[in-house]
Amino acid sequence: MSAAFYVWFLFWCFQTNTAGAQLPPPHNLKINSMNTNYTLIWEWDLGSADNGTVSFTTQYVAKYKLRNLKKSLSWYTGCETTSHRSCDLTKLKLYYLGIFRFRVQASVNGRVSDWATMDFCPDKDAALGPPSKVALSPEGRNLDILISDPMTSTNSSMKEHHEDLYFQVLYWERSADAQAARQTLTSKTNVVTLSHLKAWTCYCVSVQSRYDFYNKSSSFTPPLCIQTEGSIPWWEVFGYFLLSLVIWFLVMLLFIYGFLACFKELKATFYPSVQLPALFQYLCDSSGSDIPRLLTESDSELLCDKVTVCPAPPVLEIHNPPPEFLPEPTGLETDSSGKHSRSSSGSGDSGVYSTGGSSNLRQQHSGQDSQGPLDSQQVKMHDMALGLKTHLLIADEGIVDMCV
To answer: Residues in domain Fibronectin type-III (predicted)?
Structure first.
C-alpha cells in the first residue's frame, strides 16, 4: 500500500511539473473585418514569457475538411513566428461564402502552447462598410445624391457578394438648432433625388449601407451640406442677357478691327499706292502678273521714237600757204601803178579775220575786180574761210579763229 502511494505521488509531481512547463495559449481571439479586409487579433499574458521572446503562429483551414477524419488534415499557415498579436488575413483571399477555422499558438524558447481556435464566415461575420463616396448636386429646388458602392480589397463592388445591398439616406435642414428634424429614405439605386425642398436653403446628407439577410449595417458617412437653388429673378435674367450682348459686341468689334487692320496691311504690301512708271508697267505681263517680261521687236518699235544716225561732219583743216604765196606784210595801199596792196595789221595776227574784217574784205573784193593773181588767190581763201567760220559759228555758237 505504501509503494502504490509512493508511485502515485511521483506521477502527480511529474504531471505538476509538466503542466507548469507549458505556456498558456492565446485567448480572446477575434477578427476585425470590413467588407473583404480581415485581421485576426488575440491577447496573451506577457508574464508567462519568463524573460524570453515570444512568437506566434497562425494557421487556417476550411471547416468542411474537419469532417473527414479518414484523411490527414493539412493546415495552411497565415503568419509564422511573428511577434505581433495580430495577423492580416486579407492576402489569403478567402472565399466570401465559406467557413474557416483559425488557430494561434505561442512559442517561447522552444516551449509551445496549445492552439487557440475560432471559426469565421465572411458572409456572416464580416462587417459591411459605408459607401466609398457620396456627392451632392443641386437641381433647382431638388437635390441629387450620387452614392458609390462599398468596395472590396480588390476594388470591386460589394454588390457582387450582397446583391440585396441598399442605402439608407439621412438628410436634414442645417440650422442653429442641433436637434433639427431629420428625415430618412431608402434606395437600392446609386442616385437618389430629394424633391420638394426649400429654395436657397442649406441641407445636409449622410448615407449608410445595409444588408438585411444578416442584419448588417454600416456606419453613416460624414455629413455633406449644400445649398439648394430656386427660380432665377427676372432682373437677374435680364442682367445676364445684357452682359452677354455687351460681351458679344466687344468680341465682334475686336474681330472687325483686327480684320480691317490685316486687310490694310495686306493691301499695302501687295497693292502699294506708288505705281510703277508707264514704261515698267508695260514690261509686266498683260495678264496682270507682276513678273517683268522681255521686249519683242514690235514692242521696241512702239516704245522708241525713230532716230536717224548721221555721220560726224568732217573737220576742215586749213593750213598756211607756202611762203611764196604769202603777201607782203603791209596793208592794202594804192601804189604808183594805181593797184591796191595788202598792208600788215601790225598786231601780229596769223591771218585770222573777224566778222567785221570779213565784211570789209568782201567790200574790197566787190570793188576791186581788176586785182592780180595774188589778190584773186587771197579772195578765194577769204571766202572759204568765211563759209567755214559761219558753219562753225552755227555749230559752236562762238567765234572760231582760223588760220589762212
So the answer is: 130-231
